[in-house]
Design brief:
This protein is of the alpha/beta class. The chain has a single domain, classed as TIM Barrel, CATH 3.20.20.30. Strands 1-2-3-4-5-6-7-9 form an 8-stranded parallel barrel, surrounded by 8 helices. Strand 1, helix 1 and strand 2 form a beta-alpha-beta unit. The radius of gyration is 19 Å and the shape is globular. The C terminus is likely disordered. GO terms for molecular function: oxidoreductase activity, acting on paired donors, with incorporation or reduction of molecular oxygen.
C-alpha cells in the first residue's frame, strides 16, 4: 500500500503589508489570503507581529486579527510566527490565545520569540538587553497558563479553559544554542526565511541549527521544525522578478545599514541572501530539491515578505504553491473547497 502521509504540513506567512497608507484595505487583503489558503488546502496560516510600522502596514495585534480569520475559515490552523513575547503579559496573552482557540475549534498554533526592535522595547518600557531573559520568564508562565495550571496567584486559572497545547508552542531560533534551548523547553522550532549576517547560503547555516534541535530533543512526542522560505511562483522567472525583485532589493539595502547584508548589495545578491525561491513552479521545485533543511522540516511556511506583490499576483502565487509546487515536494492537501484550476 502506498503511504499517503504528507511529508510536511504546508503553511503561508503574511507580515500584513500593503503598498499605501490604506491599512483597512491591507488588513482586508490579508484576511482574504486566509480564506483563499483555507480553500486551497493549506494546513496553517501564520502572521508576524510588528509593533513598529512596516512600509505599508504591519500587524501589532495578531490575536484580534486571527479571531476574525477564525470566523471566516473552516479548517486552516491559525498561528503567529512570531508573537514578541517579552513585550506581552503572559497571562493576558494566554487568555487571548485560549479565546481564539475556543472560537476556532482548537485550530491555534502559537510561535513566540524575543523580538529585535529596540524601539518596540522602549515604547513598552522594557529593557532590550533583557529580551532573552524576559522571553524565558514569560514563556514559562505562558506554558503553565495554557496547561490549565494556576498562574499569578493561588486559585487563578485562565478562562476559557485552554485545550491541549502540547505540541502547539513554537520558538524562533537564530543559532544552534537557541535551537537547543527550544528543544529543552519542549517547543517546536521556527527557522527564519534568511540567516542574516552570513555570507554562506541560509540553508547551509540553518541545517546545523535544525540538527542541534533534533539532537537535543528529549520529549516523547515528535519534534516539529517549521521552515520559513520566500516562495514566489509565477508564469516564469521574469514575471516573478517583476513582482518581487525591486522590493527584495530595497529591503536588502535597508538592512545593510545594520550589517545584516553587505553595503551596496546587488539585486541578484539580495535574492540569494533572502534565499528566495522564485520563477516557474518547476524551477522552484528543482531549487527545493537542493534545499538542505527541507528534508528534516515538518512544516514548510511560504511567505512573500519582504516583497509586497499586488493582491491578484499574491493569490495566484498561493494557487501555484498549492497546485504545483508543494505536491511535487511530497505534500498532500487537506480536504478543500472547490476552486478554479491553477494550471499555468
Amino acid at each position: 500500500m502506498t503511504d499517503r502521509t504528507p511529508r510536511f504540513r504546508l503553511g503561508f506567512l503574511t507580515h500584513v503589508q500593503g503598498r499605501d497608507a490604506d491599512l483597512a484595505r491591507t488588513y482586508r487583503n490579508a484576511q482574504e489570503l486566509f480564506v483563499v489558503a483555507d480553500e486551497l488546502g493549506f494546513d496553517v496560516g501564520w502572521v508576524a507581529q510588528h509593533h513598529v510600522s512596516l512600509g505599508g502596514g504591519g500587524l501589532s495585534s495578531p490575536w484580534t486579527f486571527l479571531a476574525h480569520a477564525a470566523a471566516r475559515t473552516t479548517r486552516i490552523r491559525l498561528g503567529t510566527a512570531i508573537t514578541v513575547l517579552p513585550l506581552e503579559d503572559p497571562i493576558r496573552l494566554a487568555e487571548d490565545v485560549a479565546t481564539v482557540d475556543t472560537l476556532s475549534g482548537g485550530r491555534v498554533e502559537i510561535g513566540v520569540g524575543s523580538g529585535s526592535s529596540d524601539v518596540e522595547f522602549a515604547a513598552f518600557g522594557k529593557d532590550a538587553a533583557r529580551r532573552r531573559e524576559l522571553t524565558s520568564e514569560n514563556l514559562a508562565v505562558l506554558r503553565r497558563a495554557l496547561a490549565g495550571e494556576e498562574v499569578g496567584t493561588s486559585g487563578f486559572r485562565i478562562q476559557p479553559p485552554p485545550g491541549d497545547f502540547n505540541g502547539r508552542l513554537w520558538q524562533g531560533a537564530f543559532s544552534a544554542q537557541g535551537a537547543r534551548y527550544a528543544a529543552a523547553a519542549g517547543s517546536n522550532l521556527l527557522l527564519n526565511r534568511a540567516a542574516y549576517g552570513y555570507d554562506t547560503p541560509t540553508d547551509e547555516v540553518q541545517r546545523p541549527w535544525a540538527d542541534a534541535f533534533l539532537d537535543a530533543w528529549d520529549t516523547p512526542r515528535r519534534p516539529r521544525i517549521g521552515l520559513s522560505r520566500l516562495v514566489f511562483p509565477a508564469k516564469d522567472r521574469r514575471t516573478a522578478l517583476r513582482q518581487i525583485g525591486d522590493d527584495v532589493h530595497r529591503a536588502a539595502l535597508r538592512m545593510s545599514a545594520s550589517g545584516a547584508f553587505p553595503k551596496d548589495v546587488s539585486a541578484n545578491e539580495a535574492l540569494r541572501r533572502f534565499h528566495a525561491f522564485h520563477g516557474a513552479p518547476e524551477e522552484i521545485v528543482e531549487q527545493f530539491h537542493k534545499e538542505r533543511v527541507l528534508p528534516v522540516a515538518t512544516d514548510l511556511i511560504a511567505q512573500f515578505n519582504p516583497a509586497v506583490p499586488d493582491q491578484d499576483a499574491t493569490i495566484r502565487a498561493l494557487e501555484l504553491i498549492a497546485a504545483d509546487v508543494a505536491p511535487a515536494l511530497g505534500w498532500q492537501p487537506a480536504a478543500t473547497t472547490e476552486r478554479p484550476s491553477a494550471g499555468v
